[in-house]
Write a structure and sequence with these properties.
UDP-galactose 4-epimerase, domain 1, seven-stranded parallel β-sheet, two-stranded parallel ribbon, binds uridine-5'-diphosphate
Length: 330
């Protein structure tokens, strides 16, 4: 299938481009390069440096390439930043999606796979999180994505041939197994990259945000899913979409690891020790988040290949140890 990948120069989008090509599809990338990297997209993949706000450009790309499905990754994804600059999140994530949907409607393209997030659940009333739990996001980032999910449902009400899958990601981690792609964020705030950059000497220490949570070791528990497993799920969701489908799936491995366990894993995998500081809680962090991903497993036959944190961290280490300065390392 010819697939428009928005945000295809970003961390997850670039891995999606790779997985799409490996599974016989033809990706076309649009990215505004605000946080993406041109080097992350192979030279022989059509690339457009454009913003989602540019409707005429989107329409041109969609029709020029006779796009059959859109995978929509382009978005901002820092919770803290979203609290400080909410308009930036609603403009990029919510209005950006509206502009894209509008262009799709004009060009009669009716198939979309959307990057949603477990942040749309807010503080869940129980774990593991199932898709039917109420969505009550607690920050602008989660709300900016939640609104898009609602808009997709409305669009499906208005056009019974429109089909979408909203995939609610848990903690996406790791890097391409062959070492060609990886995570390169500025600023980098995620746990696994932060620990590995500290081990590489790029940072002085890793701070554990909170040790008094009601968990076995007192630190927060999260569900880390490998980026390639996540992208496989996108390809499976795209293949399953029939006119009128509204599919919503959690994407995690269904198992949680604590912050302490992730740090221990990084030390095992790298064979190096890291300086750890125990600090205060980070505002807005729920204690325990992990997915019940049985719906996508049952309906699409998707299974994560990576289930152990050491295996996920090893792929991230493979990338960071060879690219300590990200794509700028060459
Ligand atoms: N975390 C931490 N120190 C860091 C970065 C993250 O203790 O330098 C914790 C954070 O509080 C959370 C977990 O690690 O419990 C995962 O955080 P991350 O930012 O990677 O993802 P999030 O769960 O916020 O999407």
């Amino acid at each position: 299938m010819r697939v428009l990948v928005t945000g295809g120069a970003g961390y997850i989008g670039s891995h999606a481009v790779k997985v799409l090509r490996q599974s016989g599809h033809e990706p076309i990338v649009v990215d505004n390069l605000y946080r993406g990297h041109r080097e992350a997209v192979p030279a022989d993949v059509p690339f457009y440096h454009a913003d989602l706000a540019d409707g005429p450009m989107l329409r041109q790309i969609l029709s020029r390439h006779a796009i059959e499905c859109v995978m929509h990754f382009a978005a901002l994804a820092y919770v803290g930043e979203s609290v400080m600059e909410p308009l930036k999140y609603y403009a990029n994530n919510t209005a950006g999606a509206i502009s894209l949907l509008d262009a799709m409607r004009e060009t009669e393209i009716r198939r979309l796979v959307f990057s949603s997030t477990c942040a749309t659940y807010g503080e869940p009333e129980r774990v593991p999180i199932v898709e039917m739990l109420p969505q009550a996001p607690i920050n602008p980032y989660g709300r900016s994505k939640y609104f898009v999910e609602r808009i997709l449902a409305d669009e499906a009400d208005a056009d019974d041939r429109f089909a979408y899958a909203a995939l609610r990601y848990f903690n996406v981690a790791g890097a391409a197994a062959d070492g060609t792609l990886g995570e390169d964020h500025e600023p980098e705030t995620h746990l696994i990259p932060s620990v590995l950059l500290t081990i590489l000497g790029r940072r002085e220490k890793i701070t554990v945000f909170g040790t008094d949570y009601p968990t076995p070791d007192g630190t927060c528990i999260r569900d880390y899913i490998h980026v390639e497993d996540l992208c496989d799920a996108h390809v499976a969701a795209m293949a399953a979409l029939k006119p009128g489908d509204r599919r919503v799936y959690n994407l995690g491995i269904g198992k949680g690891y604590s912050v302490r366990e992730v740090i221990d894993s990084a030390q095992r995998v790298t064979g190096r020790s890291v300086k750890v500081e125990y600090g205060a809680r980070r505002p807005g962090d729920p204690a325990v988040l992990y997915a019940d991903a049985s719906k996508i497993r049952a309906e699409l036959g998707w299974e994560p290949r990576y289930r152990e944190i050491d295996d996920i961290v090893a792929t991230a280490w493979n990338w960071f140890s060879r690219h300590p300065r990200g794509y700028a390392s060459g």
